[in-house]
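We emphasize that the prediction below concerns an isolated chain of 107 residues; any contacts that depend on oligomerization or on bound cofactors are therefore not represented. The input was used exactly as deposited, without trimming of termini.
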Amino acid sequence: MGLSIFCIQMGQRFKDGLAGLGFLHALQQHSSVSSPVLCFSAKALTASDLETMFRPDLSPAGSNRWQKEAKTLGFWADYLLDSEEKMTAVSLEELLMFATGLAALFK
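Result of the prediction step, given as a token string:
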């Protein structure tokens, strides 16, 4: 049996299994809903994505500590923008990998 015939038969068996569960019909009828779940699509990473992904736990507003933290957040936002514009040694993707272990964000 040739490889192409084997692949066709395996594909048909897979479709038969999905049809037996009623899942194949649902996929065909609602492909736009299931596509993001079943198909990988990497989203281009932006500085804004990383900035909104993490929420800092700041000290009470108005305190000396809060003022320093707010200043640090400004520096962090600037660094993310510089990384997005490829002006730093570390890319946004490398920052994402370091912080989360993810290589990319999904759409």
